């Protein structure tokens, strides 16, 4: 099992990859773990703490293998509103509960949770279920997600 020790820089985005690693968000925030590549190969991630892996990131194993990171499809709740103030309130209350959120135009998405869905509905937003990759905001001092 090869150790993967560094994330390639954004300047390396065009570096060709030889393997793919698909992980849900919960696993993309862990810096040390064993993981199974999509082709069945195994790697040991030993990455710097404090930075979540993002869809499209590339990892380099000690043997030189370049691995493309993919965000796994997950069950998400999407709360939408045409009213910016209602959406801002929902984001505030989710953030106050330390819930990772993916901010979108007119909506906010988070990992599916029926309790949070009820809270957001009480704030006047329409909540729907969807499946897709989850790429939440990285925080004020962390890596940001931008469209």
Automatic annotation (TrEMBL):
CDD domains: UreE. GO terms for molecular function: nickel cation binding; unfolded protein binding. GO terms for biological process: protein folding; protein-containing complex assembly; urea metabolic process. Its main location: cytoplasm. Keywords: Chaperone, Cytoplasm, Nickel. Pfam families: UreE_C, UreE_N. SMART domains: UreE_N. One of its GO terms (cellular component) is cytoplasm. It is found in: Cytoplasm. Belongs to the UreE family. Involved in urease metallocenter assembly. Binds nickel. Probably functions as a nickel donor during metallocenter assembly. This is Urease accessory protein UreE. It comes from Acidiferrobacter thiooxydans.
């Amino acid at each position: 099992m090869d150790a993967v020790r560094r994330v390639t820089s954004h300047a390396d985005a065009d570096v060709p990859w030889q393997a793919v690693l698909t992980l849900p968000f919960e696993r993309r925030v862990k810096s040390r773990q064993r993981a199974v590549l999509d082709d069945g190969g195994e790697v040991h991630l030993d990455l710097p703490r404090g930075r979540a892996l993002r869809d499209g990131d590339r990892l380099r194993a000690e043997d030189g293998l370049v691995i493309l990171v993919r965000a796994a499809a997950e069950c998400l709740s999407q709360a939408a509103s045409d009213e910016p103030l209602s959406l801002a309130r929902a984001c505030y209350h989710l953030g106050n509960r330390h819930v990772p959120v993916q901010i979108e135009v007119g909506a906010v998405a988070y990992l599916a949770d029926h309790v949070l869905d009820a809270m957001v509905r009480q704030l006047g937003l329409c909540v729907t279920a969807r499946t897709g990759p989850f790429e939440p905001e990285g925080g004020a001092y962390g890596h940001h997600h931008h469209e």
